[in-house]
């Protein structure tokens, strides 16, 4: 692996490798772009098979978050923290506090956040060494993510179906986890017809009983006559095998990396299926956490999260004008915002101390 060329390829500013002999810490801290503001760095603990895999994943996550944060209009850049350890056991107190001291040494250029599966004690140990932390509990994070997706679906309906009336549309929701459940509830509250599937039959049955949605086996979710397919579960679910089975006009859901690759985005476009890029429509929790840093009210956060619909409108309009894929259009809009911001405010990458 060419280390510096890998960093330069997507404009990464810094990658720090940490090795604590006494505490056993093996970690990477990646800062992709501090021009919009301090980078937000989700903490991931994972037992990578090879150091090169941890390196590549850290850079990928940091870059992806830069694009997502810029497109959502936040004052964050993208970062990532990777700790190489068994996620079931977690890192030790000594290792996490060592990591916390390194974060503190970045003087506000990086703010740590959690991601699904982050152990609460890890965050507690970090907080004893640094104040640069912003976290949401999993239920609150799911609330904002689902709400943002619900607003984003409005833009999709208007663009593809010519109306914004949820009750006149039908939805196939793949995944009944925290976010999927909430999205189903929001859709059913409008009177929309909703099918739902999940690997956990009990969870699906409970959701169906509570909302009146219709349960379908996981293997049949792609074949339904739903106008909107909502991937809210696994990465890579949409690929050369599953996309030809879709009968939907819209694909819009909250799963990260729902498309297996760029070819999947092209295949959707070839079939005339409108795709809402995952990093645009699932940014509700990111918008929320960016405003919580400034102690915003719930009403202000709700207003900002509703702006995901306008973001998607801009993406769709740009894709049409550039005659390009929506994923490429979204990335261009994100890059242009950062460039314009940096040109107008050269010190945009200043650090900020979180409230506390």
What characteristics describe this protein?
356 residues; alpha/beta; Rossmann fold; 2 domains; six-stranded parallel sheet; five-stranded mixed sheet; 13 helices; 45% helix
Distance between the termini: 41 Å
The largest pleated sheet is described as:
6 strands, parallel
Q: Which structural class fits the helix and strand makeup?
A: alpha/beta
The total domain count is 2
Strand content: 5-15%
Helical content stands at: 40-55%
CATH architecture of the largest domain: 3-Layer(aba) Sandwich
Number of H/I helices: 13
CATH fold assignment of the largest domain:
Rossmann fold
- Roughly how many Å is the radius of gyration? 20 Å
Write the CATH homologous superfamily of the largest domain: NAD(P)-binding Rossmann-like Domain
Strands side by side in the biggest sheet? 8-7-6-9-10-11
- Average predicted confidence as pLDDT: 93
> What series of H and E elements makes up the topology?
HEEEHEHEHHEHEHEEEHEHHHHH
pLDDT < 50 stretches: none
Overall, the morphology is globular
CATH class of the largest domain: Alpha Beta
Please tell me about this protein's structure.
With 356 residues, the chain is an alpha/beta fold. The chain folds into 2 domains: 3-135, Leucine Dehydrogenase, chain A, domain 1 (Rossmann fold), CATH 3.40.50.10860; 139-323, 3-Layer(aba) Sandwich (Rossmann fold). It is built from 13 helices and 11 strands. The strands form 2 sheets. The protein has a 6-stranded parallel β-sheet, with helices on both faces. β6 (170-174), α6 and β7 form a beta-alpha-beta unit. α3 crosses α4. The longest helix has 24 residues, at 138-161.
């Amino acid at each position: 692996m060419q280390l510096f060329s890998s960093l330069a390829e997507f404009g990464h500013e810094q990658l720090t490798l940490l090795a604590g002999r006494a505490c056993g810490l093996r970690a990477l801290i990646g800062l992709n772009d501090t021009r919009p503001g301090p980078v937000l760095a989700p903490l991931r603990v994972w037992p990578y098979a090879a150091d090169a895999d941890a390196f590549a994943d850290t850079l990928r996550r940091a870059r992806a978050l830069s694009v997502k944060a810029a497109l959502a209009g936040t004052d964050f850049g993208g970062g990532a923290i990777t700790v190489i350890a068994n996620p079931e056991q977690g890192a030790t107190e000594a290792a996490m506090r060592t990591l916390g001291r390194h974060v503190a040494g970045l003087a506000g250029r990086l703010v740590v956040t959690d991601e699904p599966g982050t152990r609460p004690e890890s965050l507690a140990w970090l907080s004893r060494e640094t104040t640069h932390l912003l976290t949401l509990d999993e239920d609150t994070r799911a609330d904002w993510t689902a709400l943002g997706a619900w607003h984003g679906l409005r833009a999709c309906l208007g663009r593809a179906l010519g109306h914004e009336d949820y009750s006149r549309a039908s939805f196939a929701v793949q995944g009944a986890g925290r976010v999927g459940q909430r999205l189903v509830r929001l859709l059913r509250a409008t009177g929309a017809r909703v099918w739902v599937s999940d690997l956990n039959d009990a969870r699906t049955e409970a959701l169906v009983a509570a909302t009146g949605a219709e349960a379908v086996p996981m293997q049949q979710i792609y074949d339904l006559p739903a106008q909107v397919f909502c991937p809210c579960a696994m990465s890579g679910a949409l690929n050369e095998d599953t996309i030809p089975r879709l009968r939907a006009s819209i694909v819009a859901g909250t799963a990260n990396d729902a498309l297996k690759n760029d070819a999947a985005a092209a295949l959707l476009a070839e079939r005339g299926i409108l795709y809402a890029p995952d990093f645009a429509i699932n940014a509700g929790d990111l918008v929320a956490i960016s405003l919580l840093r400034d102690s915003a009210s719930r009403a202000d956060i709700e207003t900002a999260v509703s702006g995901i619909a306008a973001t998607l409108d801009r993406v769709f309009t740009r894709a049409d004008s550039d005659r390009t894929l929506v994923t490429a259009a979204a990335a261009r809009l994100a890059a242009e915002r950062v460039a314009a911001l940096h040109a107008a405010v050269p010190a945009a990458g200043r650090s900020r101390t979180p409230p506390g």
